[in-house]
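Predict the assembly for these two chains.
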Amino acid sequence: MHGMIMVVYMLTAIFLGGFGNYLIPLMIGARDMVFPFVNMLSYWVYLLATLVLAASYFVPGGPTGAGWTLYPPQAILTGTPGHEWGIILMLSSLILFIIGFTMGGLNYVVTVLQARTRGMTLMRMPLTVWGIFTAAVMALLAFPGLFVACVMLLLDRTLGTSFFVPAIVEMGERRDYSGGSPILFQHLFWFFGHPEVYIVALPAFGMVSDLISVHARKNIFGYRMMVWAILAIGVLSMVVWGHHMYVSGMDPLFGFFFAVTTLAIAVPTAMKVYNWVVTLWRADIHFTTPMLFALGFLVTFVNGGITGLYLGNVIVDVPLSATLFVVAHFHMVMGIAPVLVIFGAIYHWFPKITGRMMDERLGKIHFWITFLGAYAIFFPMHYLGLLGVPRRFYDMNDATFVPHSAVGLNIFMTTMALFVGLSQLIFFYNVFKSLRHGASAGGNPWRAASLEWQTPETPPGHGNWGKRLPVVYRWPYGYNIPGAPDDFVPQNAPLQKGEHAT
Amino acid sequence: MAVALVMALVVVASLLFHFLSPWRPTQIESNWGFIDDTLTLTFIVTSIGFVAVILFMSYCLYRFRHQPGRRSTYEPENRRLELLLGGITTVAVIALLAPGLLVWGRFITPPGDAMEVEAVGAQWSWSFRLPGADNRFGSTDVRFIDANNALGVNPADPRGRDDLIISNGELHLPAGKPVKVLLRSIDVLHDFYVPQIRAKMDLVPGMETYFWFTPTRTGQFEILCVAYCGVGHPQMRGTLIIDSGSDYQNWLAAQQTFAHLRKAEAF
């Protein structure tokens, strides 16, 4: 439940559903998403999906205890909690979510392709839009894999089909299944599950690029490379799913293929990291709260990214797979890093959404506790994985290979997690306080160049742009252009004398 | 200033933790030292990257922090720098991948003279089977599983009559001989993992999987299941005991064959 809620119902929904719907029209100069009705429908179906999922806490047997991967046969057999109703509600909820997402996803893609204002070429879009757009295309390709897996597993559970379950004896009793393949489910799940990582990461990549650029008062370095890197990651991420299955019993020859594709994806990803830090070179860095969160993202993402090189390289994965090393890796890279971006993005765009600034002092306290606290939880966790401590154990019993000091480390991580979790109240307090009492923001408090900050009203009125749509003359990173009087030039400001169109 | 310092300290603290903390890989007791070598290589290469990127970032944060009158330099791209960084990364990735794939090639190719044992997982215990005097396993099927035949050995298969059935969760192996472990599950996914051996592999119902290793030292180790298999998952333990040659022969002689077990039950 925790994993599925966080990855699908929280991260995917916030990045694409939340920021996607809000930022795409504003950033490309459109009045709204192109299919407003479908958009509304998508939201209600999403809400229904979350209610169905939440309902599993109130059914006999409780929610499914199958882990977020829902691997059959375990997920639908009696040895797993929630096998009566919980698993049925989980699968139904996912099916609903994917239906809702497909409507939203089509909307993002069509809006970006069709509704850009005059002058807004594809290569003048902010990287945020590139990230969300590519993620939406990937999601439209990847979610059907999960969809069919859910439908088939639901049939195995309810009608007794045998898509994923071979002939088995459960607790001494012969079950009426035969011929199914548990590994088929894993292929379908990870065909969705791996792109899903990048469905979350690419919007985060895009937003963090924009945050760094605005608050360092400098154009993002290597914009074209950044766009190509997003596309390369998008394509490659569709052919790396097998790295979740190195020790699953699939044909070991696949290990060669998936290790090569997985490590290949490190190259465009590293290029993005280099371009973010090179953007800071000869910049004019303002340590605002959004900037701090962007920097926190860089540290946690680089840290979590390099441990991916351990797990992606098939033989190195063998001892580490299914240990706490994996848990530490993915929490760092797709838990902490994207969540830091979400916070940074909220601090950054809150003034546009509400017309008021958030409290900077509280924001900075929130940042330092969250960033350093989360790092202190997940960095040491890798070392428990190196020891060989497996994940999904609530009890190690008297395992002799684990030194007693590891217990102390476990207690430290738990305490820290509770502390960091509680400290998020600072953020919510800040949001609600600033909604009413925040300092007035004006239209463009960060002096940003991209289009969403140039709306005639703040918060943007219905239709976003008043009577006339804006016309775009340059890219969204016009900071400190030589010869310009100000340190930023909005995308919709007419070309200056002697300025080359970008 | 402070931000730059803290970010640099995060790097320093991470490195100190790595070298000073008491938690390191469990002492290896198999031939898979190569796996540990690839791990060390990965640590060296990736740590250089981590330290370089974050320290460079920290330097920029200090050097280019906002001060009155500062303006940033306008530089949209620098093709040479981007190609250089991309090239270095590609080389580093190949340096990790090439040895990794070589070792993977060995990992999936058991030596021809490896002795075979079978490990069978069921919620939530381990059983084992050895091929017996004829050195061949009898065929199996879940249809044959009953209270007296937990592993589903085919009673009609002559090759299975001398198979040794070990149902107390304790597997003995001789030190120094390569072993190919055949893996079978009769209910859900399990995974055979002994931290000291390094190797692990899933047990998948409906098919047979395998891995191999050579135990290098006598001793007693825990077998864990590391593929989540329901509420009893953490309690699914077995014991691997690596014996000297004579101890192993003694243990072997004390095990019961499938045929013997069937006869005992028939009475």
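Residues 2-65+76-107 of chain B form one domain. Helices of chain B lie at 2-20, 33-63, 79-107, 245-253, 258-266.
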